[in-house]
Each structure stands twice: as C-alpha cells, then as structure tokens.
Amino acid sequence: MEEIMANKVAESGIITLNLEDYYPKGDTAVFDLKDYLFMGLILKEKDFREALKNLDLTTYANKNVALTCTADAIIPMWAYMLAASYLQPVALSVVFGNEDFLQKTLFLKNLYTINTADFADKRVVIKGCGDLPISESAYVEITNLLRPVAKSIMYGEPCSTVPIFKKKA
pLDDT value at position 10? Predict the structure, then answer.
C-alpha cells in the first residue's frame, strides 16, 4: 500500500507574511536646499522664493520626494515648509530626510495599511529572505502591529522558523 505524504506546513494553518509585498513602489527624487544657498551658506528668502516660482516641477511629478539640505548650513524651518508647498501638489509624497529615510517612511506607511484583524489568533510567519532589502525598522514595526492580535509570530520560512512571540493560553 502506498503512503500518502502529508504537507504538515500546509496543514498547520500558518500564514506567511512577505514584507516585500509592502515595499515602496514608484520613482524617487531628492530636493536639496543646498542648491539654493547663497555662497553655499545662506538662504536668501527673496531669491529662494523666486527660484521656487521658476522651478521645473516636472522633475518631481508623480515621484516620492526626499526634501533635505546636504550643506552644513542653518536652514530656517519655513524654507522646508515653502519647498514642500511647491512639491506637494505634483509629488506622490514629500518627506523630510534623505532618500534612505524616504524609503523607510514609505515602507512603514505601507505596513500601516495592513488590517491586523486578518491576523487575529493566527500563527504568522514573517518571511525572512527575499530579493529586496527590508530594513530592521520594518521588522520591528510589523512585530508591533501583529503582537497584540496574533496567536504567534515567527521569522523565517514556514518549514524553518525562529519563534518570536507566542500568546500565553
């Protein structure tokens, strides 16, 4: 008599959550205020306002924009706000910080779209290895989101996991 092989992973009811599904999509651009500084040090309000009025916004259209200043200069808060007010109508999003911070912010924003109720009292594996670089902040945040609702949280692959959390009975 032939034995039927059972797929214990499939029968376990484990849900695999692949964080790559929430990886930010879309093009990015950097708006650097250093390009608008007088002598690389000073932001002149009148000149800055004029430069923004003449700015070719197509460069930032439908992109996620990192708004930053890479020069070692003191930038008044209103300058960031003013730049954001020009970029916001054409950009997908505008975030203060460098491009890496922009990616992390967008990733977390995508994670917040998860309906945690879908994972209530479930055994969840957060997929570990993949093709895209997933930051530590994403793994920490998904743990924060799922811990209050999940029965258990594991890291890795369903066939080989590292236990992270198990709800006490």
Answer: 47
Q: Which residues of the chain have pLDDT under 50?
A: 5-11
pLDDT at 130: 82
Sign of CA dihedral 154, 110, 106, 144: negative
pLDDT at 9: 45
